[in-house]
Amino acid sequence: AGKRDLVGKKVLISAGGTREYLDPVRFIGNPSTGKMGLALAQAALHRGASVTLVHSPASWDVPLGVQAISVVSADQMRASMVEYLPNADMIIMSAAVADVKPREYSQQKLPKKLLPQALPLEPVPDIVAELARLKQPHQQLIGFAAQTGDIVTPALEKLHSKNLDAIIANPIDEPDSGFGSDNNRAIFLDKQGQRIEISPCSKLQMAHHIFDVLAKK
Ligand code: C5P
């Protein structure tokens, strides 16, 4: 599509899975590759937006023309997202933030035997919920909900509890969808009660479907 409907818009996107290191060689993380966030950045750039991509360690190259901010942990991702928030018109939180982090970081590699006791955990900040508290009414804040089983009910619960403008629910227990896959299927849900099914397609096509909806709002 040759749509240029995001000219003059600033889009802030998070991508990838955060890593919560407990020592120099071990971390708590998840299998997110950041490909959905990358696709969103490519689509937004193509449509004329100026794009900032806050991403965790990834195997892909950031597209030329995208402002890339490289982070590792949820705390670092939070700091960058809060820093760039005031300037953004659309904020899309497609990163898979780790759920917990080790309470302490050890500069020394921990002996294996110590790990079961040496690993008290604490929650990481809920970044998107914080962005929702900080954002201005004209800013659109969109989350993702990677789910198994029923994808709609938990996504709606997150849409409301985190006070988002919209959420994209996608299954991670179906073949060729979700983590690491090049393709995806999803249901777009917003706080006005709109519900749009996005049938299986590439992550780049899905990114364009998402901007088709958002650009109209
Ligand atoms: O992990 P969860 O299913 O709650 O994620 C839903 C949305 O919240 C996603 O957009 C995710 O990026 C965001 N999130 C976040 N900070 C967390 C956990 C999730 O911003 N600590």
Question: How is this structure best described in words?
Answer:
The chain is α/β, with parallel strands linked by helices and 217 residues long. The protein has one domain (10-216): CoaB-like (Rossmann fold). The chain is built from five helices and twelve strands. Helix 2 packs parallel to helix 3 (127-134). It starts with 9 loop residues before the first strand and ends with a helix. The structure holds cytidine-5'-monophosphate (C5P). Cytidine-5'-monophosphate binds at residues 74, 93, 95, 97, 124-128, 143-145, 158.
Q: Can you say what the CATH homologous superfamily is?
A: CoaB-like
Main β-sheet: number of strands, strand sense, barrel status? Answer: 8 strands, mixed
Bound molecules: cytidine-5'-monophosphate
Helix content: 25-40%
Q: Kindly estimate the percentage of residues that lie in beta strands according to DSSP.
A: 25-35%
